[in-house]
Write a structure and sequence with these properties.
Protein name: Serine aminopeptidase domain-containing protein
CATH class: Alpha Beta
Organism: Lysobacter koreensis
GO molecular function: aminopeptidase activity
Number of domains: 1
Keywords: Aminopeptidase, Hydrolase, Protease
Distance between the termini: 21 Å
InterPro entries: AB_hydrolase_fold, Hydrolase_4, UCP037442_abhydr
Shape: globular
Structural class: alpha/beta
CATH topology: Rossmann fold
CATH superfamily: Alpha/Beta hydrolase fold, catalytic domain
CATH architecture: 3-Layer(aba) Sandwich
Radius of gyration: 18 Å
């Protein structure tokens, strides 16, 4: 890592006692700040190569940690459950406050991968003045009708089976299934409802998230990976359509431009081209 970039792990605690570390890569003279939100089941540390690439280009990067992953003190189970509410209302505001305290004069960009991008949209809809820009990487809505045939035909069954299994076992054993990590029942329930209905909502949040997304006005840069069946261009367009007052730029990245296979996860191993694109 460039010696002019500082490496930090900021200890944070939410109002309900949840503790985790906010990973940071901060250049000596940052020109911008990014709060990055991981994909489902992916620990924050796996985005450090991406953070390093962005920091080398002048962006201070703070990688959030979802409950149940990495440095989080929680793990899902019968006695430990959470959903979108806890992530959006308790945890993310703590990370936002830590960034504001560290770099109070810099504009903030929200960014996210997969589910992280979706939750970045939802958080910004709930708190529209927190960030000035939004980056979505391999991140589309999971709504089954937004997927091309024949993939979409089997999705409703999967979207009903996964929350059923999570309820039965007390958590979703995602690593054994090849989907996400060990996930909480509430999180999978909120995710599956949006996947079946096409609408974002969260148990325990009284605000109409769909209406808030419709009122949001922000500059969005969405990057679609050419070989990404988990977030195809159609699902990205559906997500962007919810933010009808926002200004969106969509970039399709192929293998040659990325210098890696342009799929849902491979870009994380060689993120330099993506970092250059986003900070151009």
């Amino acid at each position: 890592m460039d010696e002019r970039v500082s490496s930090d792990a900021l200890p944070l605690q939410a109002e309900d006692g949840h503790r985790w570390q906010l990973l940071a890569r901060i250049p000596a003279q940052p020109q911008a700040a990014l709060l990055w939100m991981p994909a489902l089941g992916v620990a924050a540390k796996h985005y450090l190569p991406f953070a390093d690439a962005l920091a080398a280009r002048g962006t201070a990067v703070f990688v959030h940690e979802w409950r149940g992953n990495g440095s989080s003190i929680l793990r899902p189970g019968r006695a430990s459950d959470w959903g979108y509410r806890e992530l959006l209302i308790h945890d993310l505001p703590c990370s936002e406050a830590a960034i504001a305290a560290r770099l109070p004069r810099l504009d903030l960009t929200f960014g996210g991968h997969s589910l992280g991008g979706q939750l970045a949209c939802c958080r910004l809809a709930l708190a529209p003045n927190v960030a000035q820009h939004l980056w979505l990487v391999a991140s589309g809505a999971p709504y089954w009708r937004a997927f091309p045939a024949p993939v979409r035909y089997g999705l409703p069954l999967a979207y009903r089976f996964l929350p059923w299994l999570a309820d039965r076992l007390g958590r979703l054993p995602g690593r054994r299934l090849g989907f996400g990590g060990e996930e909480s029942r509430g999180l999978i329930g909120d995710w599956a409802r949006s996947a079946l209905s096409g609408r974002y909502a969260a148990a325990g949040i009284g605000i109409d998230i769909e209406a808030a997304l419709g009122a949001l006005s922000v500059d969005v840069h969405a990057v679609v990976m050419e070989n990404d069946w988990l977030a195809p261009a159609s699902s990205v367009r559906f997500l962007l359509s919810k933010m009808r007052h926002s200004r969106a730029t969509v970039t399709l990245l192929g293998d040659h431009a990325l210098q890696a296979r342009a799929d849902h996860f491979s870009w994380m191993q060689q993120p330099a081209a993506l970092a250059e694109l986003l900070t151009r």
